[in-house]
Amino acid sequence: MPVQLVPQIALSLFPVFVFLAGLVVLDSFKLVKLRAIIVAIVVGGIAALASLGANIALLDALPLEAKWYPRYIAPVVEESLKALFMVYLIRSKKVGFMVDAALFGFAAGAGFAFIENIIYLRSIPHASLFVWAIRGFGTAVMHGGTTAIFGVIAKNRADLKSSDALSVFLPGAAVAMVIHSFFNHFFLPPEFQTIVYLIILPAVLVLVFKQSEQSTRDWLGVGLDTDVELLSLITSGGVSTTKIGTYLKSLETRFRGEVLADMLCYLRVHLELSVKAKALLLMRSTGFNPPPDPEVEAQLNELRFLEKSIGQTGKMLMHPFLHLTSRDLWQLHMLAQK
Hints:
79% of the residues lie in helices and 0% in strands. It has 338 residues and is mainly α. It has two domains: 3-211, no CATH class; 237-336. The protein is elongated.
């Protein structure tokens, strides 16, 4: 990259990275680590390079006028490639809340915009700083905003439907593509269009952050109380008088005694880890970041051993008493990363 292009690059991307930093600051639970954000930016850049190759190939292959391609085909190609990273994160339970999805999505979009702007700068290196302020502000925020919106919609639908099937991701992808296509139509003069995107997309994301954080706090309150109460019954030996004890006793004809004991241990360890994860989030929300719990790794290893011991049938039979939504499974992933 020629040295003379550095000011244009900096000017065109300054707002999107400032806003990304603002989202990180707004995240009071500190759910996404800086390393993960950097990875998302890099993946977004890779998606931009892949989009460049795909766009060149399709532009040559499709019998379309040049003006139609950026309006209707490029948005589909680019949003699809950016979305793949978010699909992977959601399906692998690495995203616990809509806040996470917004952060990962905006970071990936920022990385995409960084590479795309470098490519455009090399093609028109003598454009004025004003041109690149308009071009960079609008494009960078658009790419970050559309991927963040896709991630938020996809995560919300995955939670509501308790599913990560392909159909869960289609509405969010459609919204992102429509926004991108609208941007590429240039219905408004570029400077006005940039202002509109700079106002609307950040405002939408900030609103999502506020709602998601409140949802997180509500979930923490209810979930923590329930987990602590159930864990107390198990550790005090009072579980035999509960519905769980009755349920396990009804399984005596199907499982050996040691397997039933392992099922109860599996429930206990799962609850202990769940309580620790929720407590960690509550401490983070108050600005306190405690050191890693040395017992967590051993408990995770014990949980994996017990999973093998009770088998898939045993796990399925424990579902009525375990929190196994994508958000709750994410807790275990978060503790494993500590």
